[in-house]
Each structure stands twice: as structure tokens, then as C-alpha cells.
């Protein structure tokens, strides 16, 4: 049965687990080459033309597939946040190294194809033409198999990236951070369009997530992050993602504290982490807020909010607007300066 339209592009999707990416690519390319047909003045001319078409098509399909399988990771390395997340997850050289080897395979395939085409034009017998095609197939297959491990790495990296949000660098971002189970995700859900998982146990949030809120003429990104325990030099992968978000995405930090200590950590421990971050992220404004205002009172002068009752949320939004105002106005905008309103109104 002939393949349905679009089969080649579908081949660019992630390989089923357990099957080598090289096997999928080679099957796809050789299937496309098998369908090649050509007209000619005689049997020898037809054989040569069909062989040339097989080589050109095989090379083109393989190189296209290698480009498609590299595209997402290549673009991610241009974004500081994504690049750092990949480096923490896979190691600093795994993804760049795999991209480099896959790129070199594309260049080598093109050279192999051009050399095979030159050899074919010198052949004057059908048997020799067939031998040239088989030799090209064998060498091309070896090149693709050589980068099998690199394709596996890129597929794993792409799966990883698909589970993380896309961050728009031109949109102001407030990163919500603090210890585990202090109420960050509940607060993010009330401030933005994000729908994070909320549960009464630590480390519910295992990776960063992003929602948006209206700023009148623009949007702001509200980033939910995994809890950070504040252990200097010792972080788990989830904590690492939170720290990467703070370093590369934050225009402002909303530091959430739980004065009830129901999160399992004392207020003193939470304040110690806050003090450390004020030193480490001195260039980023930090807004301190205490959650669970519906459960207890506090002598602190910090703003107190409740994601359950909504208490303090209006005031919190106003404070966030003030922190982000300069960041929003400093970012590129499609509107002319005279069109920018001075009144910021968050939705939610």
C-alpha cells in the first residue's frame, strides 16, 4: 500500500521507546528511495537516472530528518533559561555535543551523496550502477547509526523541553518562590491563568510552570517554581529548576512565607533563605508575602494573603504591578509610546 501524504514529516516525531532512531530514519529514507522511477533513452540510461534519484532522495530525506530532530534543541540553546535547564538535566556538553555530531553527519551525508553521484556518471553497466547504489546505502546507514546515541539524547531533551513552558523574554515575569508547601501554587492559580497541581504535601510542584495575567496593554508571566529548601550547595533537580528560573527569568521575585509553619519548616528557616536570596539576587526586586492569612494572625508587617478567601490579593496585585512597571515598559512592545496606558490592571 502506498504511504499516505505527509509520511516523511510524521517521521520527524519522537521515536517510540525501544526502537533506535536510526532504524526509523533509515526505513523512511529507503522507502522513499524505493519509489523512485525515471525515464530514459535505454535500459542503461533509465538505470543510471533511477540510481541517481535514489541517492539524491535518500540523502535529502536523511538530512531533513536530522535537521528536524535537532531544531527544538538548537533553538533552546539560544534561550538562557532553556539552555541552563538542559545543562542541569543532561550535563553541560551532552546536548551541544549531540547537536554538533548530528550537524556533521548532515554535512558528511551531503558529501557522500555528491561523491556517489559522480561515480554513477562514470558507470557504463547496469550491474556496476546497482553496486554503487548499494555501497551508498551502506555508507549512509553507517553514518546514521554512528549518531544513534546522539539522536537518543536529543529526543530525551525534546521530551524534557515539551514538559516545560515556553518563556517569552519580552514579557515581564514574576517568579513565585519559597519553601515547599507554603502555598505558592495556590497563589499562582489566583494571580494568573496557570492551573498548577495543588496538594497538601511537599514538592507537589516538580518543575516550573507559567500562567499569564493582563497588564492592560501587555501581559505578565507568573512562574510557579518547585520549593527550595535553602541547602547551600545541595539541591535536587526540582530545586535546581527553581534556581534557574530565578537567575534567568525573574524581573521580580514573589517570595512566599508560611507563618503557620504547617509547611513543615520554621519561619526562621524561611527567613534565613529570604535573607540569603536578597544578597544573591540583589539586582532583582523581591516582594515578601505571607500566605494562609485565613488560618492565623501574624505580628509581621508583611502583606498577608489567603488564596482560599482572597484576602490581600487585590493589594498583592497592586504591589506586583508596581514592581513590574519598569520591567514591562523597558521591554519591546508593538505599541507606540503614546498608546501606552499608565493604568495597570491585572486580570484574575
Q: How large is the radius of gyration?
A: 28 Å
Low-confidence stretches: 1-13, 196-206, 334-348
Number of helical elements: 11
Give the proportion of residues in helices: 40-55%
- CATH architecture annotation name of the largest domain: 3-Layer(aba) Sandwich
User: Strand order across the biggest sheet?
Assistant: 2-3-1-4-5-6
Order of helices and strands: HHHHHHHEHEEHEHEEH
Short summary of the structure?
The chain has helices at 7-10, 21-34, 43-76, 80-90, 94-122, 126-146, 148-162, 184-191, 237-248, 267-280, 313-330; strands at residues 172-178, 209-214, 219-224, 252-257, 286-290, 303-304.
Tell me about this structure.
This protein has 348 residues and is α/β, with parallel strands linked by helices. The chain has 2 domains: 7-162, Four Helix Bundle (Hemerythrin (Met), subunit A) (Up-down Bundle), CATH 1.20.120.1190; 172-339, 3-Layer(aba) Sandwich (Rossmann fold). The protein contains 11 helices and 6 strands. It has a 6-stranded mixed β-sheet, sandwiched between helices. The longest helix is centred in the first third of the chain and has 34 residues, at 43-76. Residues 1-13, 196-206 and 334-348 have low confidence and may be disordered.
Amino acid at each position: 500500500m502506498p504511504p499516505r501524504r505527509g509520511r516523511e514529516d510524521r517521521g520527524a516525531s519522537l521515536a517510540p521507546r525501544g526502537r533506535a532512531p536510526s532504524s526509523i530514519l533509515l526505513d523512511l529514507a529507503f522507502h522513499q528511495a524505493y519509489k523512485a522511477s525515471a525515464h530514459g533513452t535505454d535500459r542503461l540510461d533509465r538505470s543510471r537516472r533511477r540510481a541517481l534519484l535514489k541517492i539524491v532522495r535518500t540523502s535529502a530525506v536523511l538530512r531533513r530528518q536530522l535537521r528536524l530532530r535537532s531544531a527544538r534543541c538548537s533553538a533552546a540553546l539560544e534561550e538562557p533559561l532553556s539552555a541552563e535547564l538542559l545543562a542541569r538535566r543532561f550535563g553541560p556538553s551532552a546536548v551541544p555535543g549531540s547537536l554538533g555530531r548530528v550537524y556533521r553527519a548532515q554535512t558528511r551525508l551531503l558529501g557522500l551523496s555528491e561523491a556517489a553521484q559522480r561515480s554513477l556518471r562514470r558507470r557504463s553497466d547496469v550491474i556496476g550502477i546497482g553496486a554503487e547504489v548499494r555501497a551508498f546505502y551502506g555508507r549512509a546507514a553507517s553514518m546514521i547509526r554512528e549518531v544513534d546515541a546522539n539522536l537518543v539524547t536529543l529526543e530525551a531533551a525534546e521530551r524534557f523541553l515539551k514538559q516545560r513552558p515556553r518563556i517569552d523574554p519580552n514579557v515581564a515575569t514574576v517568579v513565585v518562590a519559597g519553601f515547599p508547601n507554603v502555598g505558592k501554587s495556590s497563589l499562582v492559580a489566583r494571580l494568573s491563568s496557570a492551573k498548577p497541581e495543588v496538594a497538601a504535601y511537599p514538592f507537589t510542584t516538580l518543575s516550573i510552570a507559567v500562567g499569564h495575567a493582563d497588564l492592560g496593554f501587555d501581559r505578565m508571566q507568573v512562574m510557579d517554581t518547585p520549593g527550595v529548601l535553602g541547602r547551600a550547595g545541595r539541591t535536587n533537580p526540582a530545586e535546581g529548576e527553581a534556581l534557574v528560573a530565578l537567575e534567568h527569568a525573574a524581573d521580580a521575585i514573589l517570595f512566599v512565607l508560611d507563618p503557620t509553619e504547617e509547611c513543615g519548616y520554621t519561619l526562621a528557616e524561611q527567613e534565613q533563605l529570604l535573607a540569603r536570596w536578597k544578597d544573591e539576587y540583589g539586582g532583582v526586586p523581591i516582594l515578601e508575602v505571607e500566605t494562609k492569612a485565613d488560618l492565623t494572625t501574624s505580628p509581621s508587617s508583611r502583606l498577608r494573603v489567603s488564596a482560599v478567601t482572597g484576602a490581600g490579593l487585590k493589594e498583592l496585585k497592586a504591589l506586583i504591578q508596581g514592581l513590574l512597571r519598569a520591567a514591562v515598559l523597558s521591554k519591546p512592545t508593538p505599541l507606540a509610546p503614546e498608546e501606552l496606558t499608565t493604568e495597570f490592571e491585572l486580570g484574575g
